[in-house]
Description:
The longest helix has 20 residues, at 457-476. The strands form four sheets. A seven-stranded mixed sheet has the order 4-12-11-10-7-5-6, with helices on both faces. It contains 17 helices and 17 strands. The chain is globular, with a radius of gyration of 22 Å. It is of the alpha/beta class. It has two domains: 31-60 and 371-476, Aspartate Aminotransferase, domain 1, CATH 3.90.1150.10; 74-367, Aspartate Aminotransferase, domain 2. The chain starts with 5 loop residues before the first helix and ends with a helix.
Amino acid sequence: MSMMHPLAQKDIQHIWHPFTQMEEWCKEEPVVITSGQGTMLRDQYGRSYLDANASIWTNLHGHRHPLLNQAIVRQLGKISHSSALGLANEPASLLAEALIRAANPSRLFGKRGAPCANPKLKKVFYSDDGSTALETALKMAYEHARRSGVSGKPRFLSVKNGYHGDTVGAVSLGQVPLFHRAFGSLLFGTDKVMSPYCYRCPFNRARPERSEARFSRRCQWECVDGFEQKLEQACKRGRPHAGWVVEPVVQGVAGMVVQPQGWLQRVARLARQASIPLIADEVMTGFGRTGSLFASHGEGVQPDFLCVAKGMTGGYLPMAATLVTDTIYQSFLGCHSSGKTFYHGHSYTGNQLGASVSLASLKLLQQGESNGLRRKAITRNLAAGLQSLWAIPQVGDIRQAGTVVGVELVQNWQTRKPWDASLRIGARVCQAMAARGVLTRPIGDVIVLMPPYCATPDQIDTMITVLQQAIVEVMAQ
């Protein structure tokens, strides 16, 4: 350890990292990020890296973006934070107005294009991160169900392999055994439905091909039938669900599982018919990642709860929001003695710095240099470059939705047999990529690419070339 850079030594001595086996972490010198610019990061030795996963899916416009920097500096000249308990503030008010406008596009409420009656989102509740955004929606939906007479003991419905954060409530909604089984005795029960994971779906009768599994699938939408059956069972028990929680279009921690087109529309229609509120976890998919500003809108679906975080501030500061319908909001109105107040909040709710940079980021998305044309170009560049990976026998599936990519590695593409977890194939590939100057983080043996929107065509090509080289190197070992 004495040969390590002093910053790396201090990290190992004092920091406990998330989702990290610290015994293994302490055996090697970590990369310590000291600065960044655009798509590039720089470490303690001055080495440069491409940020290929947007700093764990948060950074939209690149590091040190001048307009975002200016927004924070301007706000610092006024005030950095004041409480939202009993006080309002300027940037939080302006951002709430902008979010509500952005979250209610007119096309969702016309006679065409929407799969079912869509509600309008009316109110914004601010929090700190994705977990707390989901926790907010969970508490609101639970109390709304009780007050509206739906159930005295409401339950929730979520999707297998779903991940919604790390607070106890969010973990209860999650369905990833690796992360959640250790806390089982702390959690409340949640019903689950199967994930539309076409690559490993037992109902997909298509033989493995060298193309994305959801496009060549052969099934009868059994995953939708299972969803409908779950709703019917709940109705027969007399315990309809207080809410259905879903990551629209892409299940992130499940392995960047991209849902087949039409799945969200079909299950949303069933949920609406059963009067079950939709809770959309857009913590990762929001703000343009899958194409439309919010992923659920790309399928013509408007949720009752829209939870956003991560890219909300452009990757600058921790901030989140839960947008809700007027129906939900109304169930908390009454005099003080009614006990209907929503007793939930955070010290930094509506923080001025976070709200200011979020507003600047949203403006960039809607009218600036990071508009839809740039995101479409990145989508096309990724799609074209990824085709070369199909030549590698251990590449099982390549899943892409907009600027989100997951490359699943298997022992052999013809059998789809997964690797033993102890081999840490995904982690080793990412280590080999880091050695070549590209940083990302795997989800098991799924390698993620999610570049910032400022990535150039050459940088996209480099990310894919390095990924290809790293896979070949690890497989040769």
